[in-house]
Amino acid sequence: MKGEKHMNKELRKAVIAGNWKMNKTPDEAKELIEGIKPLVKGAGCGVVVCVPYVDLAAVLEAAKGTSIGVGAENCHWANSGAFTGEVSAPMLTSMGVQYVIIGHSERRTYFGETDETVNKRIRAALDAGLNVILCVGESLAQREQGVTGELVAMQTKIALGGVSKEELKRIIIAYEPIWAIGTGKTATAQQAGEVCGIIRSVVAGLYGKDAADAFTVQYGGSMNAKNAADLLAQPDVDGGLIGGASLKPADFAEIVKAASK
Length: 261
Ligand code: 13P
Known about the structure:
Largest sheet: 8 strands, parallel, barrel
Bound molecules: 1,3-dihydroxyacetonephosphate
Number of domains: 1
Helix content: 40-55%
Strand order of the largest sheet: 1-2-3-4-5-6-7-8
CATH architecture: Alpha-Beta Barrel
Oligomer: single chain
CATH class: Alpha Beta
Mean pLDDT: 96
Strand content: 5-15%
Radius of gyration: 17 Å
Order of helices and strands: EHEHEHEHHEHHHEHHEHEH
Shape: globular
């Protein structure tokens, strides 16, 4: 499966999002966001930090009056009920949370997340008014089997089932090859660009070229201050979902700078 290169990059928003994963206590989170704040002031791209549930209150408070968007790292598909340990989308919006990551490979690998539950969580997030960062991506074995394109297309299609063209405006897709996450092994700019192009082609097939041209696709997986500019120079890479480097204010700010237009 091949993606075309889509050159209308100026039509879409560049967004750099941090995924703090299971790091930082509320006090540490406050310190980290205070460190990031001055460095990304006036950024020429969207800046979002997705943080553990227990850090949301502290980070929302610290981000007040800035243009930094605040997100959670997951949400449940039901609004409330007997789901011990889960957090619902309306709970997040009630706090002022604007974004949520759905379908991260760590959720899929360690917590049994499937394309179907990803789709249900997206439905709930959209209904509650959240913006979604949907993660898709292949394992090393899948890449070696040559099924990356088909797999990512399938993940994208199932996740977006029932999502309207209007709702699509509140979705970002992050292409995160599992073999590149936390490994220091980044996809080459060409590999990242190619798969982000495939994702955009799938979106074009579902929603039309205008929607796809305006759609933000991020790359994630060992993106850092050094390799960001190269990855972001790809026509179909509009931003990044950053793990490790988002915990270091200077590195995160450097990536934001690379994405700023
Ligand atoms: P790293 O940047 O640490 O590889 O993590 C990427 C990621 O999983 C972001 O969601």
